[in-house]
Amino acid sequence: MFAKPVPGRTTADAEGDVVVLLIGMRVNHFWAVHQWLPVMLSMFRMLGELARDRDRGLLGHVLLTASPRTYYVVQYWESKEKLYTYAHSPDLFHHRAWAVVNRKERAGKVRGHVGLWHEAYVVPEGSYESIYFDMPAFGLAGAHGQVPLERRGRYAKDRFAHRSAKAKVKVTEEAG
Q: Fewer CB within 10 Å: N-end or C-end of the chain?
């Protein structure tokens, strides 16, 4: 399934803070398929679990590769609280997958065949901007929606300065 490009210049329709999780793996030994393939398949299983229940908070994701060894997912979340809730829910797959990793590590059965990593960011409103030219909704726009560039400003400085109605009300309340 291929999305059609949206003609012209657009930007992401994100408002408020943006929560971004980068999570991935590195294949340290290609021959150890029995070690790294289950890790890779686990990520697909977690993404499927999240896709089946949008209320868990994953708004969108992009699968990427940094090299023939390193694979990762850029994830956009509704809030850091929903990200934490998913990560720590004992009835969901992420928690069980990490329990297996932790047990193997404690038992000395981790052999360095596969590396795991993640980085999480909460980006406050006014600290992100985006532009897409003849692109389907992708990345931040795929997660939050896509609007014509003019709605947020032609220049990056204008898009950085954009404030949602909610943020404007908060500033007015704080000033008053």
A: N
